[in-house]
Amino acid sequence: MVDKNIKISIVGVTGYSGLELLRLLYNHPNAEVISIHNTQQTHTDISEQFPHLKKMYNLTTMPFDSVYIMQHADIVFFATSSGVSKDLASEFIEAKFPVIDLSGDFRLPASLYKKWYKKEPASDQLLQQAHYSLADFYNNNATYIANPGCYATATLLALAPLAQHQVLDKDNIIIDAKSGLSGAGKSLTSTSHFVNVSDNFSMYKANQHQHIPEITQQLQKWQPDIEHIQFTTSLLPINRGIFISAYVKINDAVQANQIDKLYKKTYANTQFVRIMSQNQLPNIKQVIGTNFTDIGITYNPDTRYLTIVSVLDNMIKGAAGQAIQNMNHFFGLEESTGLHLLAQYA
Amino acid sequence: MVDKNIKISIVGVTGYSGLELLRLLYNHPNAEVISIHNTQQTHTDISEQFPHLKKMYNLTTMPFDSVYIMQHADIVFFATSSGVSKDLASEFIEAKFPVIDLSGDFRLPASLYKKWYKKEPASDQLLQQAHYSLADFYNNNATYIANPGCYATATLLALAPLAQHQVLDKDNIIIDAKSGLSGAGKSLTSTSHFVNVSDNFSMYKANQHQHIPEITQQLQKWQPDIEHIQFTTSLLPINRGIFISAYVKINDAVQANQIDKLYKKTYANTQFVRIMSQNQLPNIKQVIGTNFTDIGITYNPDTRYLTIVSVLDNMIKGAAGQAIQNMNHFFGLEESTGLHLLAQYA
Amino acid sequence: MVDKNIKISIVGVTGYSGLELLRLLYNHPNAEVISIHNTQQTHTDISEQFPHLKKMYNLTTMPFDSVYIMQHADIVFFATSSGVSKDLASEFIEAKFPVIDLSGDFRLPASLYKKWYKKEPASDQLLQQAHYSLADFYNNNATYIANPGCYATATLLALAPLAQHQVLDKDNIIIDAKSGLSGAGKSLTSTSHFVNVSDNFSMYKANQHQHIPEITQQLQKWQPDIEHIQFTTSLLPINRGIFISAYVKINDAVQANQIDKLYKKTYANTQFVRIMSQNQLPNIKQVIGTNFTDIGITYNPDTRYLTIVSVLDNMIKGAAGQAIQNMNHFFGLEESTGLHLLAQYA
Amino acid sequence: MVDKNIKISIVGVTGYSGLELLRLLYNHPNAEVISIHNTQQTHTDISEQFPHLKKMYNLTTMPFDSVYIMQHADIVFFATSSGVSKDLASEFIEAKFPVIDLSGDFRLPASLYKKWYKKEPASDQLLQQAHYSLADFYNNNATYIANPGCYATATLLALAPLAQHQVLDKDNIIIDAKSGLSGAGKSLTSTSHFVNVSDNFSMYKANQHQHIPEITQQLQKWQPDIEHIQFTTSLLPINRGIFISAYVKINDAVQANQIDKLYKKTYANTQFVRIMSQNQLPNIKQVIGTNFTDIGITYNPDTRYLTIVSVLDNMIKGAAGQAIQNMNHFFGLEESTGLHLLAQYA
């Protein structure tokens, strides 16, 4: 077996994203998890706590310890809730030690973070060290990588070809986004109780989801006149998956029948974005368990609205998988290393 | 017990809507099902075929027989697939015998029916006898009632207060509609196979659903300048329920903070439309098992889009329940008779 | 409308059973809920807290107040968790005021309650006033009715015809019981989190469920030599429903081909137990939303084991519906009053 | 990358098991799928037909062609329905070309096959060439491998430690087995329609499942006095997973407190059977997506019944995964090659 030369520490290992990192990294040929940390718990055999890890991992959770991590690991993943890395990551930033942060703490400027997350932000000085890295448009080798949010990834990949060509009608960008429950994490609330989710569908945080500014600021980089998006989020009675229905108008610079070509060209050299055949739309299931984002487009000549559907697995492409893709870039590995994942058909 | 004086025949009793009519009519104090008909099957004990009806119904299916029905019943319900009543209902129309048609055969003018249903329409002469009856806006006592479609009911009730005041921006009426699987009926297709539906979410018939012209023509009656709606439909991994997310802009004739009032006023005298408290949005589960349509509204000052959510039970308000509501109107009964239905909380 | 002459108070109205009582009693022609009580909360508009009750109930929760209840109501339902009624119900018992208790507090002798519920029991004096009332075998008009548990009802109805004829092989009574999640109530635990329930199935409380002594003591009344049952419980990823698979051997006093007849005879005069046609087995869905228990039987000549399947809706027959059936008996009403409920087919 | 030296053909590639083989073999370091065959379809681009395979497989289905397969491949997998390989596989048997057969056609002697499958069996001569290979008890290097059924694998692994020590009370072996829907395959029947499966649970083929003789004959090899098992199967409203609840009595040769030790010893050297910690029972989700069988045991001193729970993924350990494990054995590879699969936690 190949030498697993990249040593990884994970902070927040008992959350959904942390456990998904453990799962995916098990089969990464060049990387190995050498320590797992939990902000609350200490010294628990991870496979006793999570029997699905039996015979696979022989690791014990440790309290967070930045010195230990910097001495033993090559990179640290923060798979923590928002509000944790902004405090704990500063030592790594100061030491220029590589961090991939799956939380939202370093994705926004201080003022926007404060407004949308309703928490105190990290300092401007720290925030400036972080680079927001949409892995399929990799363009930087920053040491502190802010891994994009799940909804943001699905939405940005759906709109990128249009925004990059600046053909979006900025006043009518409507996103109806849906997510499975794992996106909300492990916390026990009435909205995660099985009886309230099963056989149900509900909209939440309409116009208030914290991924809105994350999406808008990236769109603006591509098409500067975009100020706002109409963005709502709803909860699907499934465990995994994001489904974005985007309704947009485009300006005269591009014709409807050119759109397919535009999408195919934009993603021609990517490995993890698949454009569906003409007028076919993807469903959630075809990407679950994978690092793919699948995109389909259909145009309505009556309303002149374009419908763009994009789907991804929120735990993989929307979290742990994209983080590994970013890690692969950082270490100069082929970006799909450890991510050759296919969806279960049945 | 009250004399159950209204005698009812049901054609198409073994489909989902027919079985739901049987279920609801069991407890109707003034009506009784006296014959059940099936276009294919004959002479089957309905409670042997459907054990959930044991000890409740003692009826045998009969072949379709218009003479029998007109001799013994006071009204006939067609709970048939599209394409059936346009042929079978003509005798009733000619005899001016009361019909409530749950199918789409008499909802559209001939040309639109042909275009969207891809079937030969009924004759113009017959079509003119039918009245499209959105039960919560009851305004007619036609003998042939075309009962509205499930998506159409949910969408029209969501938009009626705005369209009736003609304040919709006609170019940006975007409906992202979702339905549970019972809306697709009993037919066995790969899209109804459990493995393909469970843990999945998919868009289908984008811009092509046959309820689009049904919605548009009714909106036009309220606000004549409306020509088109942007309308997509998606499949939820649940049995019942429709969830409409409508994104619309409104013109200056009405202010955003007046919208709540407008909705409450429009539906003040209805029994089956409930407007949620300000900024609260309904979920599907709170209407399942009931004849209610629940509506919530939220306004985004940044995008100037109004989000309107409406939910209903597609088998009740979207089919059998509204049909009974229409029947109650026709016979001069209180419209909620037999429809005092509450949702299961757990 | 008929005079709703029976006045009802409900204690514990915001739990699943309390809300189900509200739902079912809405359509009871002879009864009316006049006050609702919650042990924690006070003075909340019930339809603000639970929007599915809008336009149906105009009631405000009150703190528990036994004096108020005895002055204004004719009967009180305890829809509380175990450990509540044993303390709160004593005043009613002393005043001989009618109580129907949906909790387990008065179903067992003190010693068994202590062992299985791990709580202090009510006093022997109070316990003796209570009558365990399996409604389909009504035989008493006690003022304090201990309403049976959901698993217990399904199991006892499945085994009653055999136990009453004392033909069960006492050493091989094996019950593999499954329940939907509503049986576990509203409390937020990791075992009720959607992500842990969906796509999953798990056994819990094997040999330790508190309904075991409840079942055993009733079986003993019918067949005194029965000492123990092998009873496990598993969690289905659905909201409602109980499915009992019972595997039993029978002694030579009865032949396998007589079993069907025995079951049909035992339940010939009941309204809410339906025996399936020979070799047909019921599924959960055909009883959801109803007060029925459906039972099917199949015999294996190779193993000499009889398989008995019984299904019911844990919230109705297993809780609120049976409680109303018991109330109907108590007040001399026809036992199905208010309980003419049919299952949704789709 | 390692040379993928084993060349594989798959017959029946468009069924669930065939697609799962494609999925798993993608990441097998020593094997490669070189041709895919379908008994009906011909010359279809597999990733056009199944979009989840886009960017992963560039293969076109071919009609079945035994000559082509024997010329180009090293081994052929039959992932066909029962009744196919008994006809198509004879040429391979005669040529002593390696076959792994996932169907039931070569698991039983002719008379039992005829009785339980209700089809004409293969000839005795052919049947004798096949070896039933429970991969975790690998003991043969036959060229024709009859891969065990899903229920059979779960049941046999649950009972093996007891049967091998001949301590089972032969008259009381009761198996209550449950499966997700993928076990029933892709065929469209009313029992696979989403509306009939969702929110439901039903027993089917009680005492008649074709895995009964498969289990019994293997148990007999271990403990010859076993004649019959009491075995029922039920359908869970989930896609994947088998859950076996076995209730057995053991004779005096072994004490209840020795059982844990017995299980741990039996499986000490296996890679894919995990015994839970004392009194812990596994749930389905912890093995989905993996080749593991997890087993938990609990003893009831009152009834003297032992409850054994075993869980596995019916598409992997119950089909494609075990087939690959058998292939690894056949070619002398480490048995877990390509099968390092972890369950998704969320």
From TrEMBL, chains A, B, C, D:
Reactions listed under catalytic activity: N-acetyl-L-glutamate 5-semialdehyde + phosphate + NADP(+) = N-acetyl-L-glutamyl 5-phosphate + NADPH + H(+)
EC number(s) recorded for this UniProt protein: 1.2.1.38
Any one cellular-component term (Gene Ontology): cytoplasm
Pathway where this protein functions: Amino-acid biosynthesis; L-arginine biosynthesis; N(2)-acetyl-L-ornithine from L-glutamate: step 3/4
GO molecular-function terms, A-Z: N-acetyl-gamma-glutamyl-phosphate reductase activity; NAD binding; NADP+ binding
A GO biological-process term: L-arginine biosynthetic process
Alphabetized InterPro entries for the sequence: AGPR, AGPR_AS, AGPR_dimerisation_dom, AGPR_type-1, NAD(P)-bd_dom_sf, Semialdehyde_DH_NAD-bd
SMART domains assigned to the protein according to its UniProt record, in alphabetical order: Semialdhyde_dh
Subcellular location: Cytoplasm
Chief location of this protein within or outside the cell: cytoplasm
PANTHER family: N-ACETYL-GAMMA-GLUTAMYL-PHOSPHATE REDUCTASE, CHLOROPLASTIC-RELATED, N-ACETYL-GAMMA-GLUTAMYL-PHOSPHATE REDUCTASE, CHLOROPLASTIC-RELATED-RELATED
Family designation: Belongs to the NAGSA dehydrogenase family. Type 1 subfamily.
Function noted in UniProt: Catalyzes the NADPH-dependent reduction of N-acetyl-5-glutamyl phosphate to yield N-acetyl-L-glutamate 5-semialdehyde.
Record-given protein name: N-acetyl-gamma-glutamyl-phosphate reductase
Taxonomy of the source species: Bacteria, Bacillati, Bacillota, Bacilli, Lactobacillales
